[in-house]
Amino acid sequence: MPRLYESRKRILVTGGAGFLGSHLIDHLLEKGHEVLCVDNLFTGTKRNLEHLHAQPRFEFIRHDVTFPLYVEADEIYNLACPASPIHYQHDPVQTTKTSVHGAINMLGLAKRLRCRILQASTSEIYGDPTVHPQTENYWGNVNSIGPRSCYDEGKRCAETLFFDYHRQHGLEIKVARIFNTYGPRMHPSDGRVVSNFIVQALKREAITLYGDGKQTRSFCYVDDLVDGLIRFMDSPAAFTGPVNLGNPAEFTMIELAELVLKETESSSPLTRQPLPQDDPKQRQPDIALAKKHLGWSPRVDLRQGLKPTISYFRSLLSDVGVIG
Ligand SMILES: NC(=O)c1ccc[n+]([C@@H]2O[C@H](COP(=O)([O-])OP(=O)(O)OC[C@H]3O[C@@H](n4cnc5c(N)ncnc54)[C@H](O)[C@@H]3O)[C@@H](O)[C@H]2O)c1
């Protein structure tokens, strides 16, 4: 039967109640699509979706992607997976299952529907990189038996599955390697550095620096990242990736802490703790491939992106009475 709205797609977003997924859903709905969000609410929350309550083109299913799913869709974005070390190390076996069984189930669904599928992979697949900045053809330096391995190796195996489904079954795949992203709706206690520093600064608590604070990270604002994901999904079939999506501007943890203190007008002191095991010292994306194939590069700099992020945490903490 011909579709009533030819340009309107039915899009499945797994992990849609989480930080990135909920922003992705907002953007897809704005473009006029129908969105089906699948999430087991492990780290995601209905609060991230409550503004969509009356949106007729939006649907939510509570489901764990480690179990098969039978729905109809024109495209799949596979984002389901806890993303912060605190959360993914909470139940490491389930983390690997989510990446690996989740990928098998979603790829199986895409194969049945003959639809395009995008994987939210990660810069963690580069491990503690010996090449800087990281290009997509770098194979990584990853520990297979450490506390972070459930996430890193799970995501690596998911990439393998995506490319095998592509070669073996001709499936249209897109593999995005996402670097540190921040913005409103991040989990306030997930231990990620941007949310940690902001929450500590707003609560006037000491800001925790690990190691000497000279390790660097690059931070991408969520709107830029979501724009990159949608451009990638809409790009020609031959461009499968993997492609790095992130902001190459690099900051030391000390620089980030100082910026957060300034933007929150906080006088919290800095305190030091030992570096966690397998914590990478440097992480910076080479985004030449994304620029070339997607015409994409981030537009929001760290200072600009911190403002709405700080406002979000300020209202979240005052809603629950943690700050005045
Ligand atoms: N945020 C980043 O900086 C970043 C960086 C690299 C990669 N990624 C990837 O992007 C994706 C989204 O990350 P995020 O930052 O939004 O994290 P998040 O924890 O906020 O979102 C993940 C979502 O997946 C859901 N989920 C977890 N296990 C599930 C399961 N078994 N079945 C169904 N749902 C499940 C959670 O409830 C949550 O809503 C993840 O796959 C993550 O690995 C994120």
Structure, explained:
The chain is an alpha/beta fold and 324 residues long. Helix content is 36%, strand content 17%. The protein is built from nine helices and 13 strands. It has helices at 19-30, 85-88, 92-113, 149-169, 193-202, 222-233, 253-264, 288-294, 302-319, and strands spanning 10-14, 34-39, 58-62, 75-78, 116-122, 173-178, 181-182, 207-210, 216-218, 220-221, 243-245, 250-252, 270-273. The strands form four sheets. The protein has a seven-stranded parallel beta sheet with strand order 3-2-1-4-5-6-11, with helices on both faces. It has a two-stranded parallel ribbon with strand order 7-10. Strands 8-13 form a two-stranded parallel ribbon. Strand 1 (10-14), helix 1 (19-30) and strand 2 (34-39) form a beta-alpha-beta unit. Helix 1 crosses helix 6 and helix 5 packs parallel to helix 7. The longest helix is centred in the first third of the chain and has 22 residues, at 92-113. Bound molecules: nicotinamide-adenine-dinucleotide. The site of nicotinamide-adenine-dinucleotide (NAD) has 29 residues, from helix 1, helix 3 and strand 5.
